[in-house]
Amino acid sequence: xxxxxxxxxxxxxxxxxxxxxxxxxxxxxxxxxxxxxxxxxxxxxxxxxxxxxxxxxxxxxxxxxxxxxxxxxxxxxxxxxxxxxxxxxxxxxxxxxxxxxxxxxxxxxxxxxxxxxxxxxxxxxxxxxxxxxxxxxxxxxxxxxxxxxxxxxxxxxxxxxxxxxxxxxxxxxxxxxxxxxxxxxxxxxxxxxxxxxxxxxxxxxxxxxxxxxxxxxxxxxxxxxxxxxxxxxxxxxxxxxxxxxxxxxxxxxxxxxxxxxxxxxxxxxxxxxxxxxxxxxxxxxxxxxxxxxxxxxxxxxxxxxxxxxxxxxxxxxxxxxxxxxxxxxxxxxxxxxxxxxxxxxxxxxxxxxxxxxxxxxxxxxxxxxxxxxxxxxxxxxxxxxxxxxxxxxxxxxxxxxxxxxxxxxxxxxxxxxxxxxxxxx
Length: 425
What we know:
Blueprint: H1 2-26, H2 49-58, E1 64-66, H3 70-76, E2 85-89, H4 97-108, E3 112-116, H5 122-128, E4 141-145, E5 147-152, E6 165-166, E7 181-185, E8 199-205, E9 212-220, E10 223-228, H6 236-239, H7 242-251, E11 260-263, H8 281-287, H9 289-313, H10 327-341, H11 344-363, H12 372-382, H13 386-401, H14 407-423
Parallel strand pairs: 1-11, 2-3, 2-11, 3-10
Antiparallel strand pairs: 4-7, 5-6, 5-8, 8-9, 9-10
């Protein structure tokens, strides 16, 4: 009976997986890709083909793509530039420590680097940020909202009406119809009154807060670095509207009039120790729709086989005896030992030692003396009268200095301590 049930479950799962596979293989309806890939040749909502075209028009069709690392490119192609620009728009910027140094040397000559990423490379930022606010660089912060209003901090660029960006409704192409997005920003703790190495250029406003800095400038030598924390604002989805085009135009007004280099290379992780490695066969399989879902089906069937095969060969699980709580027996045993010793002094010491441990764990107060500050602090946190706490601390000091304690004293101490335990908050 059990075997039939197991076989039925397996058949049901196979039918479900096969049905899903057939659906994806034969449903040829075009689906919208909502992946944040920021590819300059893609017309997907989160591609950057519109931005790429605008930059190409701005540079009089002299826009150059960076398809290899800065070490080669800046040495052979852009080594003589003094007012050129490197533009990187992506979710992340994968930059090595050596490339960060070379890029800083290039900017120092009078060139500009613009990065719109949700994560500023730590290798670069730890070298640029001078820690004037006594705050080590810990990365960007983020929040989630459905509507944001970016604007510019400089009076010459600030608009009286904020631009409005609404998170896209992704419709039936996603399992969750999400109407919110994650927005990253530059924490204001890095911009103290004394800071001079970081200039605030723009911010994000929401219905509840307007203190989210998302656009900064860090001068370096004769040039500098612009960091924008919301690459999503430069995607195809938003640049279809004139209002958003206006905001983008103002952002890129900060670029210089020289050459513009569009960084494609650092949009993905590059293994500097294995630059010549070719793509594996799995890359091609996953790039073909039919092969991709066949591969997923094979993996699913393999997982099912392993799960049910392991269940069939599993040894019977031994019945373990239920664990018993022996705490009460332990206390009774310890208590009887102290009672047999008939030593009121040791019992008193133990009671007050446990009292000090209890106060330290619950209220984070270390009782060493019965000074007024300790008494007031413990009274405030425990809601016990100061007179009672002062009496307890006096008895505690008395017990530690005078070992002459009677059984009646132990009973009296216990009653006062018990009152504290039962009534403290």
